[in-house]
Amino acid sequence: VLGALGRADEGEALLRRALADLSAGRPTTHPRVQRMMRLLVRLYERAGRPDEAARYRAQLVPGVGEREGPG
């Protein structure tokens, strides 16, 4: 949403902060951590920043955090 409003930098900062908060005390394989990383991958892909997208994509586990739900 923020990207559509021309505020992608703000969206990135929020996602990165959320990832840091969720990562505290959780493994990178935790569904919520994976969900945040997937959102960052999508943001970076849309922003034309493939190197940053690849950094997070390399940590993704297939099937984990792909959809909303308990976790």
Structure description:
The chain is mainly alpha-helical. 56% of the residues lie in helices and 0% in strands. Helix 1 (8-23) runs antiparallel to helix 2 (31-46) and helix 2 (31-46) runs antiparallel to helix 3 (50-57). The longest helix has 16 residues, at 8-23. The protein is globular, with a radius of gyration of 12 Å. The model has no long low-confidence stretch (mean pLDDT 86).
What is this structure's SSE topology?
Layout lengths: L7 H16 L7 H16 L3 H8 L14
Helix pairs in contact: 1-2, 2-3
Keywords:
mainly alpha; 71 residues; 3 helices
Anisotropy-based shape: globular
* Class of secondary structure makeup: mainly alpha
Query: How helix-rich are the residues, as a percent range?
Result: 55-70%
| Quantity of strands, as a count | 0
What gap, in angstroms, lies between the N and C termini? 24 Å
